[in-house]
Amino acid sequence: MHDHADYIEHIIVLLERTPGTLDELLRGLPPEWTDRNEGGDSWSPREVVAHLSHAERTEWIAHILEHGESRPFPRFNREGGRASMHKSMAELLDEFAAVRAESIGKLRGLALSADDMGRHSTHEVLGTVTLAELLTTWAAHDISHLHQITRCMAYNLREGVGPFHRFLGVMKCSAHSEQNPKQARP
Amino acid sequence: MESKVTHNLDHTIALLERTPGALDELLRGLSPEWTEQNEGGETWNAREIVAHLSHCERTDWMPRVKHLLEFGEMQPFPPFDRLGQRQAMQGKSMAELLDEFARLRAGSLEELHALGLSPADLERRGAHPALGSVTMSELLAAWAGHDLTHLHQISRVLAFQYREAVGPWARYLGVMQCNGHSS
User: Fold this and answer.
1) Which of B43, B94, B162, B182 to mutate to test the interface with A (most CBs of A within 10 A)?
2) What does residue B67 show for φ and ψ, rounded to 5 degrees?
3) Looking at the predicted complex, does its ipTM rise above 0.90?
4) Do B174 and A33 lie within an 8 Å CB cutoff?
């Protein structure tokens, strides 16, 4: 583990990049890429972006600010992003960039100390977790959804690529498969 | 809505155009602790993956498109060295590799555009040295699928660096369950 301030800065560097990365990847792409899912009630890239904004409003920074060991995290509504699904991809990307910038501002404002990073909270399923783990999971959750978006887009190419299928690793990903598409939750 | 994206060259190009920018946003200026770390053993780090994309741009995709148009199934695509980037990436920074990839990709798409492929061209067949008969349409879709495969791989390589630091949350993070399956 690094010096805690460096560690937080590393997390922030990743958190800051996600809106821009998603924007470059998804803005202006035809709905054939952004609105198709991996079957069943799995999520499309547009729904993933809506989910990221929803989690940003209700999860990460809120947990850091408000909850200690005596007050467990409230249950997270993984479907909460669905309420924003009437919005266009461009609107959802703008919204995510705005709420992310705001939460990074709050995180910097907290100036968390090394002691803070070791503070415990209670998660209803996972039990005791540290603030450092929560912060790290925030960044890893972004990466997990980027991973999901690339898999979802590739899913829509699965027939178009014909025999090239076997050389394309993303087409073999079952990390959170159709049967359990929403495994990647905070 | 569930369907597939097939034979739509405009959609394929829309994605191919976006990959360099997305990688740039994700990786430029990121510390070497991210960009130089791999998933252990001989696996690739993010810098090597970007170098690989450029290597493919030079020796794989458009060269194969042109080869298919010229030779059809009469002559298989020349073999491709999937480790060819190892030499090419020596001494190059991530910033240089991102610039190079963006430049090469723009050039490829210009060439592709200039070919003005017709729907009939998309159905033409070539011979892949390992896969046998493939259509132009499949080759072009695989180009986009290859970008997605490596974006997917980069996200997994980045997440790998946090596999312990997330503590018990690892089980909820799909990317942490991804078991490699690289090509």
Assistant:
1) B162
2) -60, -45
3) yes
4) no
